[in-house]
Every structure is written in structure tokens, then in C-alpha cells.
Specification:
With 229 residues, the chain is of the alpha/beta class. Helices cover 44% and strands 15% of the residues.
């Protein structure tokens, strides 16, 4: 078996997914990257030397392609479920939330991560690996207008906790990165200047701290992880 660590990252073409891929590649990791948009994913692939598989994680056919890639891996040490759907923008209150859109949000934010974990579990167990599901403060704070996204991330937090209880040989984390200057965050606030939000790269040291120290499985925030200077 190869001694080089391998990670699968979804939503890897931009934001925290891209920043995490670049950081792990700099550490010598092998990477399997996926995202819906081909051109930016190709740029990340070229920067990291990763294998890139473009597609939507909510699409079962795309997940089948990923499963075939994972089956051929010598090892899999880490899965980062970063791909997320915000829902409609501007963000509607729950009383007017289009149910088709809500179904799409749930398919991307909770069904797809579970499907990814189901297909990667044997490889993760063999490596005693790590699961990181990207959460949000909207999972725990009831912001008006964030009902669809927040409900999906609350469900993801609980799914992560149960997955950890059922797989104690793995380290399973919900990771809340906090506000970041991303396209998704801009879509949540279409009429606001979000240039004061930190870049995703500033969150990566906290994520790496989580991977390096492997605390007990649970929910962690970037702000709560102490990063040595």
C-alpha cells in the first residue's frame, strides 16, 4: 500500500475546498477533487497535480463515477464534504420557500455527503481515516431567511455525530469555518459588500490543526481551534 496520504474533496473548485486542496497538496498529499464547474476545477488540478472529476455530487451518476475512482485507490485517509447549495438568492423565509429548491438543498447538503461517506467507508476504515463535513453557524443559530440552508447544515451536524458514534475507529468532524469571502456568501447577501469577510485561505490553518491533532469526534469551529504561531 502507498504511504502517501490521499484525500477526496468535494466542492474543490473554489472557496474553502480550493484552499484546502492547495494546502494539502503543499504537504504532499494525493488528491481526488470534484466540483460542478470544470474550468476552475481544472485550474486547481493543474496547481495541485490532483485527479479531477467534474460533476454534481447530488447526481447519482456522478457519484458512481467517483465510487469507481475510489475503488481503485490504494488508500483513502480523508474525506472533506465541502460541496454545498445555498438555495434561492435572495434567500426566502420558510413560509415562502419553494419546496423544489428545498429538495435540491437537502440533496446537495445532506444526501450527497451521506452517499459519499457510504461509498468511501471501507477505504476510510482501512486507513483509520478522517471525515470532515463542512458546517455553518447557521446550523445552530436561527437567522431569518437561512431556514433552508441552516436546516440542511443542522441535519448534517447530527448525521456527522451519529456517523461518529457508529464508526468509532474514525475521526468524524463537523467543521464550521465561520464567515468567508466566497461566491456563496456573496449570493446570501447580494446587495452587500462582503469584502470585510476573511478569505478562505485564512481558515485553512484551523482545518489543518484539526487534521493534525485529531481531537475526539464532534463539532468544531475555526475560531475555537488554537493555531500555533
Amino acid at each position: 500500500m502507498s504511504t502517501t496520504k490521499t484525500a477526496l474533496i468535494t466542492g474543490a473548485s473554489a472557496g474553502l475546498g480550493r484552499a484546502s486542496a492547495l494546502a494539502l497538496a503543499a504537504r504532499g498529499w494525493d488528491l481526488i477533487l470534484t466540483a460542478r464547474t470544470l474550468d476552475p476545477l481544472t485550474l486547481v488540478r493543474e496547481a495541485t497535480g490532483a485527479m479531477a472529476v467534474a460533476g454534481d455530487v447530488a447526481d447519482p451518476a456522478h457519484r458512481a463515477r467517483l465510487a469507481a475512482v475510489v475503488a481503485d485507490l490504494d488508500r483513502l485517509d480523508l474525506v472533506i464534504n465541502n460541496a454545498s447549495a445555498l438555495g434561492p438568492s435572495p434567500m426566502p423565509r420558510l413560509a415562502a420557500y419553494p419546496l423544489d429548491d428545498f429538495t435540491t438543498v437537502l440533496a446537495t447538503n445532506i444526501v450527497a455527503p451521506l452517499a459519499i461517506l457510504q461509498m468511501t467507508l471501507p477505504k476510510l476504515q482501512a486507513a483509520k481515516g478522517i471525515v470532515v463535513n463542512i458546517s455553518s453557524d447557521a446550523a445552530v443559530s436561527p437567522y431569518e431567511g437561512w431556514g433552508g440552508y441552516g436546516a440542511s447544515k443542522a441535519a448534517l451536524d447530527h448525521l456527522t455525530a451519529i456517523f461518529a458514534a457508529e464508526n468509532p475507529d474514525l475521526s468524524s468532524y463537523s467543521f464550521d469555518p465561520g464567515d468567508m469571502r466566497t461566491a456563496m456568501h456573496q449570493a446570501a447577501f447580494p446587495d452587500e459588500d462582503i469584502s470585510d469577510r476573511p478569505e478562505p485561505e485564512t481558515v485553512v490553518p484551523a482545518l489543518l490543526r484539526l487534521l493534525d491533532t485529531r481531537p475526539p469526534s464532534g463539532r468544531y469551529t475555526a475560531a475555537g481551534l488554537t493555531v500555533p504561531r
